[in-house]
Design goal:
The complex is a heterodimer of chains A (330) and B (261). Chain A has 330 residues and is mainly alpha-helical. Chain A folds into two domains: 51 residues, no CATH class; 234 residues, no CATH class. Helices cover 78% and strands 1% of the residues of chain A. In chain A, strands 1-2 form a two-stranded parallel ribbon. In chain A, helix 5 runs antiparallel to helix 6, helix 6 runs antiparallel to helix 8 and helix 6 runs antiparallel to helix 11. Chain A starts with a strand and ends with a helix. Chain B is α/β, with parallel strands linked by helices. Chain B has a domain of 141 residues: P-loop containing nucleotide triphosphate hydrolases (Rossmann fold). In chain B, strand 7, helix 6 and strand 8 form a beta-alpha-beta unit. The longest helix of chain B has 18 residues. Classes of the chains: A mainly alpha (330), B alpha/beta (261). At the A-B interface, helix 7 of A face helix 3 of B.
Chain lengths: 330, 261
C-alpha cells in the first residue's frame, strides 16, 4: 500500500495545497506508509521538503495551560505587590529628583521646560474652554429645572459658581490634561525607551528623572492652576448663558449671586487641588512611560495605563480633599 | 597607558533575568587599543552584555573592571566619573529627537566641561565634521537617513574624547558602502584617539576587516565558546559552531537543531 498523487489536471496552486499535502504526508510517514510525490509539481515537492527539513523544536510550542484558581489568585497578589512597590520606588526617585531641584542641582534644559509649558498650557486652552463651558451650562441646566420648581431659579448662580470653583474646574481640567498631556508624556517616554534615548541619558550620567520627569512635572504643576482658574471662569460663563437664555435672570443678578457665594478660600482651595492633580497626571504619565516595554504595542499600553492611573488618582485625591476640607471647615 | 595593558576586564559575569540565565561565567579581557568584537547569533545576549558593561544592567554574579578599578562595586557618582571616559553608539543612534544634531553632540560638552556656548557649538561642529556631517548642525534626527543618524550618534559618543568606545551593531541597517565607511572611521578613531573599541556585531565583513580580538557567545552552552583574533578562530577553532558562524555556515548543511534564528 502506498500513497501516490496525480496532479495532471492541476492548473494552479497556492499554500493551501501545500498545507493539505503536509497534513497528508506527515501521518503517512509516522505510520510507515510510503508516499510517492512524483505526481506533484516540483515547486510543491520542494516546499514540502522545506517544511519538513527542520524537525519541530522540543518545547518550542507552548500550550496555555489554565492554572488552578489558587495559583491565579497568588500570582495576581504577587503582581499587585510588585506593581505597588514599583510605584513606591518611582515615588521615591521623583522625591529625590525634586530634592535636587529644590537645592538647585537638578539638571534639565530650560528650553525643554518652556516648550512643555507651552504644550501643556497654552495649547490646551481650546479643549479646556469647550469642556468647561459645557460643564458649566450643564450644571446650570440640571439645577435650573429643579430650582424652578421652588421658584428659586436665581440660585442657579450659586450652584454653578460653587460647583465649578470648588471641584469641577480642577477635576475637569485634570481629566482633560490626563487624556491630553498625561497620555502624551507616557508615549514620549515610552518611545524614548524604545529608541534607547533614556539609556543614552543614563550613560551620559544624566538622570532621566531629572532630565525628563522634572520639567514635565514643573510644567503641569505650574499650568494646571492657571488652567483651573481659566476653567472656573469659563464654566461660570457657561452657567450664565443658561441662566440668561433659559431663566431670563439678568446678567447683573447672576454675577451678583456669584460674588456673594464664591469666596477666596474656595477659589484658592480649587487652585491648590488643580496643582496636585497636575502633579498626579505627570506622575502617572511618566511612571507608565518609563515602565513601558520596548515595542509599539507596549507604548500604546503605557499611554492607556497612564490615563487610567491618572483618572483613578485624581478621583481618589478628590475624595480625600473633600473629606479633609470638610474636617478643616473650608 | 601601555600597549597590551588590560583596559576592561569582565570576570565571571553571569547575566540573568529573573530565573532565566542568559549567559554564565563570561570571562575575558579587552586590552588597550584593541578593536574587540563581541559576536554570536541573534538572541545570544551580545547587546545585553554591552548593557552590563556600561552599567545599564547589573550582573547577577561577577564583576567588571575598568583599568584596575571595579565598575560593578563603584557607587553611582564614581560610576558616572568612569563613564565619562566612555562613549557609546547605540543600535538606533539614540539621538535625542527633540534636539538638533549640534545640541545632541554639544550636550555632554555643556554638561561636563567649562566651555562657553560658542566653544561648545564649535566643538560639536568639529565632531560632526569628523563623521562627515559638516553643515548638518541644525538638522533634527528625524530629518536624516539611518546611516547619518548613526554617524551623528558616533559624533555624540566621541564628544568628550573618550578612551573607550562601545558600538552596538554599528552596521545594522546600513548599506554595504556606508558600513564599510563606518569601519574605516572606527579604525581611524582608534588610532587618532588612541582609544579602545568594543563592538557588538555579527557582520562578518566588519569582523574580519577591523577586529583584533573577539569572544564568541554560544547560545547552546550559554557561555563563551571561543576567544581570540577572528581570523584565527575561523581557520583554527576546534569548536564547530564557531567555525560555522565565521564561515557563514559554509562547512555544514542545514541539520536539525542548528538552524536557530
Amino acid at each position: 500500500m502506498r500513497v501516490v498523487f496525480d496532479a495532471t489536471a492541476l492548473r494552479g496552486w497556492d499554500s493551501s495545497l501545500v498545507n493539505f499535502l503536509v497534513q497528508v504526508v506527515e501521518p503517512c510517514r509516522e505510520r510507515g506508509v510510503p508516499v510517492d510525490q512524483e505526481g506533484l509539481p516540483s515547486g510543491v515537492r520542494r516546499l514540502i521538503a522545506l517544511a519538513e527539513a527542520v524537525p519541530e523544536r522540543k518545547g518550542a510550542r507552548t500550550k496555555a495551560v489554565p492554572l488552578p484558581i489558587l495559583d491565579r489568585i497568588g500570582l495576581a497578589w504577587i503582581r499587585g505587590g510588585e506593581s505597588v512597590s514599583a510605584i513606591l520606588s518611582f515615588l521615591g526617585d521623583v522625591t529625590q529628583a525634586v530634592g535636587q531641584l529644590v537645592r538647585g542641582k537638578a539638571r534639565y534644559r530650560s528650553v525643554d521646560l518652556l516648550l512643555l509649558i507651552q504644550q501643556a498650557g497654552a495649547e490646551a486652552l481650546p479643549i479646556v474652554t469647550l469642556i468647561s463651558f459645557l460643564v458649566g451650562s450643564i450644571f446650570a441646566f440640571v439645577g435650573a429645572v429643579q430650582l424652578q420648581k421652588f421658584g428659586a431659579g436665581v440660585y442657579v448662580a450659586d450652584l454653578v459658581g460653587i460647583a465649578m470653583v470648588r471641584e469641577m474646574g480642577a477635576v475637569m481640567t485634570g481629566i482633560v490634561l490626563a487624556g491630553r498631556t498625561g497620555a502624551a508624556y507616557a508615549a514620549q517616554l515610552g518611545t524614548m525607551k524604545v529608541t534607547q534615548e533614556t539609556d543614552a541619558l543614563t550613560t551620559m550620567g544624566l538622570s532621566p528623572l531629572e532630565f525628563l520627569v522634572l520639567p514635565r512635572m514643573l510644567a503641569l504643576g505650574l499650568m494646571m492652576p492657571l488652567l483651573c482658574l481659566y476653567s472656573d471662569g469659563v464654566g461660570i460663563l457657561g452657567g450664565a448663558a443658561v441662566a440668561v437664555g433659559m431663566l431670563h435672570i439678568p446678567l447683573v443678578t447672576y454675577f451678583g449671586r456669584i460674588k456673594t457665594s464664591v469666596d477666596l478660600t474656595m477659589l484658592s482651595g480649587g487652585i491648590f487641588k488643580a496643582a496636585v492633580y497636575g502633579v498626579l497626571v505627570t506622575f502617572s504619565g511618566c511612571l507608565r512611560g518609563l515602565q513601558s516595554g520596548a515595542s509599539a504595542s507596549a507604548v500604546g499600553d503605557a499611554a492607556t495605563s497612564a490615563v487610567v492611573t491618572s483618572i483613578v488618582l485624581i478621583i481618589t485625591a478628590c475624595g480625600i480633599f473633600a473629606v479633609t476640607f470638610y474636617i478643616l471647615g473650608i | 597607558m601601555a600597549e597590551n595593558e588590560a583596559h576592561i576586564t569582565v570576570r565571571d559575569v553571569t547575566m540573568a533575568f529573573g530565573s532565566f540565565v542568559l549567559m554564565h561565567d563570561l570571562d575575558f579581557t579587552v586590552r588597550h587599543n584593541d578593536i574587540f568584537i563581541i559576536m554570536g547569533a541573534s538572541g545570544s545576549g551580545k547587546s545585553t552584555l554591552l548593557r552590563h558593561m556600561v552599567g545599564l544592567n547589573e550582573p547577577v554574579h561577577g564583576e567588571i573592571f575598568y583599568g584596575g578599578a571595579s565598575f560593578t562595586r563603584a557607587d553611582p557618582v564614581e560610576r558616572n566619573r568612569m563613564l565619562r571616559g566612555v562613549g557609546i553608539l547605540y543600535q538606533s543612534g539614540a539621538l535625542f529627537s527633540s534636539m538638533t544634531l549640534a545640541e545632541n553632540v554639544g550636550m555632554p560638552l555643556a554638561e561636563y566641561t567649562d566651555l562657553g556656548p560658542t566653544e561648545v557649538l564649535e566643538i560639536a561642529s568639529l565632531k560632526l565634521a569628523l563623521v562627515g556631517l559638516k553643515g548638518f548642525e541644525d538638522f533634527y534626527p528625524s530629518q536624516l537617513s539611518g546611516g547619518m543618524v548613526k554617524r551623528a550618534g558616533l559624533a555624540r559618543a566621541m564628544a568628550l574624547d573618550p578612551k573607550i568606545l562601545f558600538f552596538d551593531e554599528p552596521s545594522a541597517g546600513l548599506d554595504p558602502i556606508s558600513s564599510r565607511l563606518l569601519d574605516d572611521l572606527i579604525l581611524e578613531l582608534r588610532d587618532s584617539l588612541d582609544a579602545t573599541i568594543v563592538i557588538v556585531t555579527h557582520e562578518l565583513a566588519s569582523i574580519f576587516a577591523i577586529g583584533t580580538n573577539s569572544v564568541f557567545l554560544d547560545v547552546e552552552t550559554r557561555t563563551i565558546a571561543a576567544s581570540g583574533p577572528p581570523q584565527e578562530l575561523r581557520d583554527h577553532s576546534d569548536n564547530p559552531s564557531v567555525r560555522r558562524f565565521l564561515t557563514r555556515g559554509a562547512d555544514v548543511r542545514i541539520e536539525g537543531g542548528s538552524a536557530r534564528g
